Amino acid sequence: MDIVATIIPIFAVIILGWFASVRGFIPQEFLGPANRLVYYIAIPAMIFRSISRSSFTRQFDIKVLLITLLSILVIFGFAWCVGVITRIRREQRSAFVQDSFHGNLGYIGLAVAYYFLGTEGLARASIIAGFMMILQNLLGVTVLALYSSDESMKEGKWNIALRIMRNPIILSVIAGMLFSIVEIPIPLIINRSLDILSGLALPMALLIIGGSLSFKLMRLNMLLVLSTGMIKLVLLPGLGFLLFSLSGILPADYLPGLILLASPTATVTYVMAKEMNGDTDFAVAAISTSTLMSAVTFTVWLNFAR
Q1: 2: how many CB neighbours lie within 10 A of its CB?
Q2: pLDDT band, very low/low/confident/very high, at 152 (cuts 50, 70, 90)
Q3: Which listed site, 67, 96, 104, 281, has its alpha carbon 20 to 30 Å from 271?
Q4: What is the distance of C-alpha 36 from the center of its chain?
Q5: Region 207-224: what's the mean pLDDT?
Q6: Cβ neighbours of residue 198 under 8 Å, at least 6 residues apart?
Q7: Fold observed for domain 2-305
């Protein structure tokens, strides 16, 4: 019942965002500014607030982190091999590989972690997410470098690498860990401001995800899009679940990592596909499909791990 009570409300808000977009309550022009507000201010505030108030030494589990990162690396290599062996078109292959491992951690992964595991689970998931984002973006840049044929983009690739280290979510994780480890006190006024901003983060993020869904593009390359979704939502968390179990880690300890591995394809993969002259329609289709599929797969994985 806890799992259903967690998953259904999250995806109900996502569908509400889609409906509001279709009916014109959320115009497409609103999504860009709203996304920047959530990405640069609200989500970082929520992550910083959560980590800074927790005990880092108690929340940080190196084994869970290493297995989570290893799972991403293995699936990255697997998806790449599948793309080469099946001879997927070059411009589509880069999007296929990215969509198979690059998860939507900030908007959906952390939402599930918070509503299923509570504040403590959110803090642990946020720490893992910071490291995952660094790896995901580095692998994304690797794909970009190998599949871009535009010589004028060489400098742009380094700009992308630089943006990784300026990622507001990664910076908020680092700042939160610093405040937690050193036990720096936060003034009441700032604390309450963070509370208000944190309350904005997840509802707005879920509405934005819903408003970005495209059912029309989901019908394009359906077999390939479904293949990407299966790799991202079944193989990746499945590998993580297997490694967690073989390592003897308790479900209560590895659930934050498993939830993040089970997150659907990140919306940033569309941006990456656009930067590398890849197949942006395929990227949007994969994002939309995996987001909807994850309503089922999240339920399955949370039941397995419970």
Answers
A1: 10
A2: very low
A3: 67
A4: 16
A5: 80
A6: 42, 45, 46, 49, 50
A7: Na+/H+ antiporter like fold (1.20.1530)
> What are residue 265's DSSP bridge partners?
103
How many residues belong to the chain? 306
pLDDT band at residue 150, thresholds of 50, 70 and 90? Answer: low
HSE-up of residue 68 (Cα within 13 Å, Cβ side): 32
**What is the per-residue pLDDT across 9-37, written as a single tens digit (0 to 9) for each?**
989 999 999 999 999 998 888 888 888 89
Q: Which two tokens stand for residue 277?
A: 């002259």
Dihedral angle computed from the Cα positions of residues 139, 145, 149 and 155, in that order, rounded to the nearest 10 degrees: 130
Q: Which two tokens stand for residue 133?
A: 């984002």
Residue 103, beta-bridge partner list: 265
Tell me the C-alpha distance between 193 and 183, whole Å: 19
CB atoms within 10 A of CB 247: 12
For residue 41, is pLDDT > 50? yes
